[in-house]
Write a structure and sequence with these properties.
Elements lengths: L2 E2 L1 H21 L5 H19 L11 H7 L14 E2 L1
Parallel strand pairs: 1-2
Helix pairs in contact: 1-2
Length: 85
């Protein structure tokens, strides 16, 4: 596997947005903190498994991966091109 899927990047963005929204809502209704934690753990596991550089396993942040969906992108650790499918 020498690529990262667009759907994984979009899913990561959805998890981050849902985590922030439920975190803010948690200050009004405290049980929403449980959902915020669930979304945050889901994002972390997705990031560890599917949002890493397929060549070297280096970390790429979500902002750079969103940019990479429409542009040529190289890993900041190994310098290899990352294909976004």
């Amino acid at each position: 596997m020498k690529h990262i899927l667009r759907k994984d990047i979009n899913l990561g963005l959805i998890f981050v947005v849902l985590s922030v929204v439920t975190m803010v809502g948690g200050f009004i209704k405290w049980p929403l903190f449980i959902f915020a934690g669930t979304f945050l753990i889901s994002y972390i596991s997705l990031d560890k498994k599917r949002l890493r550089c397929p060549n070297c396993g280096g970390y790429e942040n979500l902002d750079r991966l969103m940019y990479a969906k429409n542009h040529v992108f190289h890993c900041k650790h190994c310098g290899e091109k990352i294909n976004i499918l």
